[in-house]
Amino acid sequence: MKQLPREIHKHIRARTYIGSSSLGVSDGLVTNLAFLSGFAAATSNLDIIRIAGVASMLAGSISMFFAGIIAGRSEYELYQADAKREAGEIEEEPEEEKNELREFYIAKGLTRDQAGSVVEKIASNKAKFLEDILMHELHVHRARIPNPIKAGVVIGLSFLAGALIPLGPFLLLRTKVDSLIGASLLSPIFLFSVGAWRGHVVGRKFWKTGLETLGIGLAAALILYLIGLSFGFF
């Protein structure tokens, strides 16, 4: 039995969830770092800061979990609506749909006869015809739609992991000052790492995406710290 040639260039696995996990970690880290910075500036009670930080982390994780489910469901429902509409058009105006698909293949470099043969072959299978129309006309494919539950779990757990990074020093260290210093040293490293990882995955320069994420996170933390400091004066 002849073996198929091995794939030389690896595809990005679980690409559907990479954006969600990157967003979740970054959002969790930035949100809780900014929240803890602002809260620490407003009060000197470390126990209150810890409770508030844990509450913020859990609330954000649960919120992101359900947001991921809703986003995934919405995307699936939009796909279903598009598929239903296009299936109706195929039934009512098959020649017009064939012509649209034919023009797409001609634009790709096929001759009119070649494009016509390809389209007639595809159109003989209604499921494949609909799939081709959705993919080339609307740029949607069922395989690219994330599972809503998985999307929610990924982004929720990613937020939890990100939020735990700046919270860790507040839970482990004994004073507010030490906790702030620990979070200030630890969080930028992870912010840069998350951005660099995202850049590596999508093919951008890792240091550029790392610095972008780092800059956004530090700016948010500084703004919230100054706001909290102003409340502390009242």
Largest sheet: none
Structural class determined from secondary elements: mainly alpha
What is the number of domains? Answer: 1
General shape: elongated
Low-confidence stretches: none
Helix content: over 70%
| Oligomerization state | single chain
Quickly describe the structure:
The chain has one domain. The chain is mainly α and 234 residues long. The model has no long low-confidence stretch (mean pLDDT 83).
Task: Kindly describe this structure.
The chain has 8 helices and no strands. The chain is mainly alpha-helical and about 230 residues long. It has one domain. Helix 1 packs antiparallel against helix 7 and helix 7 (about 175-200) packs antiparallel against helix 8. The mean pLDDT is about 85.
Question: Characteristics of this structure?
Answer:
234 residues, mainly alpha, 0% strand
Summarize the SSE layout with pairings:
Layout: H1 15-42, H2 46-92, H3 94-107, H4 112-123, H5 126-137, H6 148-172, H7 176-202, H8 206-232
